[in-house]
Amino acid sequence: MQERTAPTAVASRPGTSLAKAGAAAVLPTTPATPLSAVDGRATRAVPTGIGELDRVLGGGVVPGSVVLLAGEPGVGKSTLLLEVVHQWARRGPADRSLYVTGEESAGQVRLRADRTGAVHDRVYLAAESDLATILGHVEQVAPTLLVVDSVQTMLAADVDGVTGGVTQVKAVTSALTSLAKASGIPVLLIGHVTKDGAVAGPRSLEHLVDVVLHFEGDKHSTLRMVRGIKNRFGAADEVGCFELREDGIEAISDPSGLFLHERTTPVPGTAVTVTMDGKRPLLGEVQALVAKTQNPSPRRAVSGLDSARVAMILAVVERRGRVSLGNNDVYTATVGGMRMTEPSSDLAVAMAVVSAVRDRPLRPRLVVIGEVGLAGEVRRVPGVGRRLAEAARLGFDSALVPVGSGSPPPGMRVTEVADLGAAVAAMELLPVRAVPTVVR
């Protein structure tokens, strides 16, 4: 009987030939370095001077990084980055910024800079769309920050394809990324979005860059939000808030006041909740209006909330909370153009509807937090401690929360409820006060 010989493993010792493995070894020009010996100080974030943007970026822009800012037309992308290059140039004599625009003329950008107060001697402007010419501007100006508006309008002459096409966008982004890595210049790119809100161009575009930000905002509101989608240097779920004005864009470090209606007298049908947008707690107000109707199919109108979820909550309120809504039109909305998609606002919607049906307001300075299930149970939501701390900071002294939400912050009275029936029973409804009529 022939004896079998065990196969010999290919040893990975220095000097071993890799020809049998189908690969040819090449002597590296730079030897591998122990991770402990790598100097991380060269990749520390540098603040841009705009606090809300730095918050989303993870402290600022990292030298040699590429940031893609995408958003719908007219949302304020160019205005924001024009303010970024202005603040960057104000840092010191050694900091020069280059703003390259392929969508507007130099005169148009100057008009916006005059309107927003972003004119500075160390802000250089180039109205170019040819990639090779842009690289020539970079060598001539030697900036420490480069902004390209937008990547879909740039053209690489030695690459086939139309401007804005998949091939061109990928080639331009690859060239600008190589420039950033070789020179250490941070590059900010403006990108277009599709009808669905996704970044226009090849999917590989988001893989080539280091940071992807979405600039969002309702055209009927001045509120703008920069949302992190991808970030190799920090958290990818941060949100920065801005207000777009005629004279420019301004960062809002405390945006909760925009989503709360200031009033001296409590009003039926309103409830305040705390949502988490990324890691940021935001206070928002939910409003409900319940009106009698003779229509056999009562109307359900929703603004700023998930219509399917509101329909579910109304069914639970009627079935589990024993509140009749069959002969009523129900209107629900948020204040200030805020979008609430988190389930933690379910209980606030339910309490606002109950308050509207009974025509009695909730007690002032009360926040309502919790997810409502189909069985009527009130479920716990993450980050209740941070939510209550933010509410307490803004002057709220009581809360309606799910059971097991943890200890409240000092000075806040918390009522824990297990289901919707208990929440309705625990509501502190105030009597309706007559509001004086002002005759002019």
Termini distance?
Answer: 115 Å
Query: The biggest beta sheet, please?
Result: 9 strands, mixed
Run of helices and strands: HEHEHEHEHEHEEEEEEEHEHEEEHEEH
Tell the overall outline: elongated
| CATH architecture grouping of the largest domain | 3-Layer(aba) Sandwich
Which structural class matches the secondary elements?
alpha/beta
Can you give the helix content as a percent range? 10-25%
Task: Give the full name of the CATH homologous superfamily of the largest domain.
Answer: P-loop containing nucleotide triphosphate hydrolases
Instruction: Outline the low-pLDDT stretches.
Output: 6-12, 434-440
Strand content: 15-25%
Nearest-integer average pLDDT: 88
Radius of gyration: 28 Å
Give the class-level CATH name of the largest domain.
Alpha Beta
Motif (RadA KNRFG motif): 230-234
Domain RecA family profile: 42-193
GO molecular function, one term: ATP binding
InterPro entries: AAA+_ATPase, DNA_repair_RadA, P-loop_NTPase, RecA_ATP-bd, Ribosomal_Su5_D2-typ_SF, Ribsml_uS5_D2-typ_fold_subgr
Features:
440 residues; nine-stranded mixed sheet; 25% helix
Q: Could you describe the 3D structure shown?
A:
With about 450 residues, the protein is α/β, with parallel strands linked by helices. It has two domains: about 45-255, P-loop containing nucleotide triphosphate hydrolases (Rossmann fold), CATH 3.40.50.300; about 260-425, Ribosomal Protein S5, domain 2. It has helices at about 50-55, 75-90, 105-115, 130-140, 165-185, 205-210, 305-320, 345-360, 385-395, 420-425; strands spanning about 65-70, 95-100, 125, 145-150, 185-190, 210-215, 225-230, 240-245, 250, 270-275, 280-290, 300-305, 330-335, 365-370, 370, 380, 400, 415. The protein has a nine-stranded mixed beta sheet with strand order 3-2-4-5-1-6-7-8-9, sandwiched between helices. The protein has a four-stranded mixed beta sheet with strand order 10-11-13-12. Helix 7 crosses helix 8 (about 345-360). The longest helix has 18 residues, at about 165-185. The chain starts with about 50 loop residues before the first helix and ends in a 14-residue tail after the last helix.
